[in-house]
Specification:
The structure is a single chain. The chain is mainly α and about 100 residues long. It has one domain: 2-Layer Sandwich (rbstp2171). It is about 55% helix and about 5% strand. It has a two-stranded antiparallel ribbon. Helix 1 packs antiparallel against helix 2 and helix 1 crosses helix 5. The N and C termini lie far apart (about 45 Å).
Length: about 100
């Protein structure tokens, strides 16, 4: 992944169930109008790691991910979704639940 530094190898790790739930809660908190790149960045900060599985970024480092091109974000996002077995629309549907709950009130 030359965009992250020459010769640097990024790994994408599987989230634990606790981390997955934390991500889904944080994703929902972004609200329904959050952009796809922002949602992807919030997933990637939790999944990008070194060869030992140690996270490279903290939960608040989405801006670091968003500083890269859309192409890089898309490639890494596809890998993170695949590794973590997210359904095609799971991330977006989780964000929409809060709107549905408000509409039902």
């Amino acid at each position: 992944m030359p965009e992250w530094g020459e010769g640097r190898v990024l790994h994408v790790r599987r989230l634990s169930m606790a981390e997955r739930l934390e991500f889904l809660d944080a994703n929902e908190a972004l609200g329904p109008d959050a952009s796809e790149p922002l949602r992807t960045a919030h997933l990637l900060v939790r999944c990008l790691c070194d060869e030992d599985g140690v996270r490279l970024l903290g939960d608040d480092d989405a801006a670091v991910v968003l500083a890269h091109s859309e192409e890089v974000l898309a490639r890494l996002g596809v890998a993170a979704v695949h590794v973590n077995h997210f359904g095609e629309d799971e991330i977006e549907s989780e964000a929409g639940k809060s709107d549905e709950a408000q509409l039902d009130d």
